Amino acid sequence: MTALALVPVQMLSQAKSRLAARLGPEAREELMCRLVERLLRELQAARRIGRILVVSPDPAVLALAERAGARGVLQAGTGLNAAVELGQRSAVAEGWARLVVVLADLPLLAAEQVDRMLALGREGSVVIAPDRHGLGTNLLALWPPDAVEPAFGTASRERHARAGRVSGLRVLEYWSVGTTVDLDTPEDLDELLERWGWRPDWWLTGKGVTGWRSGTAG
């Protein structure tokens, strides 16, 4: 059984603000676009993903999603959890039995990791893919799609697990390099380059990221 993949993306003008010491506003916007494009390619290659839904208040993000073969849904307001709730409602209305929420800033995520994570779940389950610190949630697989209310943000791993247990659901976790390593801070960028050998072919300038070509990694 395939799942609906939900990718919430904020306004590009607000993306990656913690990288401001390294990248100017236009560069951060383009970086976010490239991360989303790469993620959508990996999700499309995943055998257990049946469709991709991108929820964002930014028309540019929705246009990017449509070009990539995903469906875009305009978010009237802002906020990550509100975007996920909108996606959950869409999943239920469309009759999807399973939903996986995938945050967009995962430069090492691979299709096979998404498949392995989804393979863990059964009806009445919550599967959490934590961030590298073991505090946040980078992917959240729900069977059914509205199994728990989204609680992304500080300490969301424990909040999602607690919500699942309170609802009588089976709670599991999936760990891999691709699901744990996100890109938020200059330190994250250094780790990607130095520890994981992340080598996209790019040229960083004060105005943009040019010549980008996504590489592949674990």
What would you say this structure looks like, in words?
The chain has a 7-stranded mixed beta sheet with strand order 3-2-1-4-6-5-7, sandwiched between helices. The protein has a two-stranded antiparallel sheet with strand order 8-9. It has 7 helices and 9 strands; from the N terminus they run βαβαβαβαββαβααββ. The protein has one domain (3-210): Alpha-Beta Complex (Spore Coat Polysaccharide Biosynthesis Protein SpsA, Chain A), CATH 3.90.550. The model is unreliable at 202-218 (pLDDT under 50). The two termini are 25 Å apart. It is an alpha/beta fold and 218 residues long. The longest helix is centred in the first third of the chain and has 21 residues, at 25-45. The radius of gyration is 16 Å and the shape is globular.
**Could you say which overall geometry the principal axes of the C-alpha atoms support?**
globular
Helix amount: 25-40%
Q: Would you report the number of β strands?
A: 9
Rg over CA atoms, rounded to whole Å, is 16 Å
First-last Cα distance: 25 Å
CATH top level class name: Alpha Beta
Number of domains: 1
For the sheet with most strands, the description reads: 7 strands, mixed
Short description:
By secondary structure, the protein is α/β, with parallel strands linked by helices.
SSE diagram, text form:
Layout: E1 3-8, H1 25-45, E2 49-56, H2 59-67, E3 71-74, H3 80-93, E4 99-102, H4 111-120, E5 125-130, E6 137-143, H5 156-166, E7 170-173, H6 177-180, H7 186-194, E8 203-204, E9 209-210
Parallel strand pairs: 1-2, 1-4, 2-3, 5-7
Antiparallel strand pairs: 4-6, 5-6, 8-9
